[in-house]
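Figure 6 in text form: structure in, sequence out.
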């Protein structure tokens, strides 16, 4: 979703896109592990295939200059990253619930 919005702001993809997420698995996958999985045919070091590789591939292809940064969701600290992460969580949870309840 973030990359779709950013395409409207910077259609020529000249700027760096920062995506903040409390999903540490996503952040590590995108910043560190995909560069190993890609040349290894999306196989992990312990041999099983990478889970959700299709989604990770879409994220890799969707934007050139992007950086994922981890945000601590369970914090009492009131900084802008935590506040925006919390705000983004509401529609994400609602969409997940709708998809779950509408799934046959």
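Output sequence:
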């Amino acid at each position: 979703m973030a990359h779709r919005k950013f395409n409207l702001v910077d259609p020529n993809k000249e700027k760096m896109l920062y995506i903040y997420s409390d999903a540490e698995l996503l952040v590590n996958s995108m910043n560190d592990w995909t560069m190993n999985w890609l040349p290894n045919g999306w196989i992990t070091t312990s041999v099983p295939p990478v889970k959700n590789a299709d989604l990770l591939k879409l994220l890799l292809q969707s934007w050139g200059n992007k950086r994922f940064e981890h945000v601590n969701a369970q914090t009492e600290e009131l900084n802008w990253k935590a506040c925006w992460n919390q705000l983004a969580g509401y529609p994400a949870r609602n969409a997940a619930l709708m998809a779950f309840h509408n799934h046959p």
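Caption detail: The first helix runs from residue 2 to 9.
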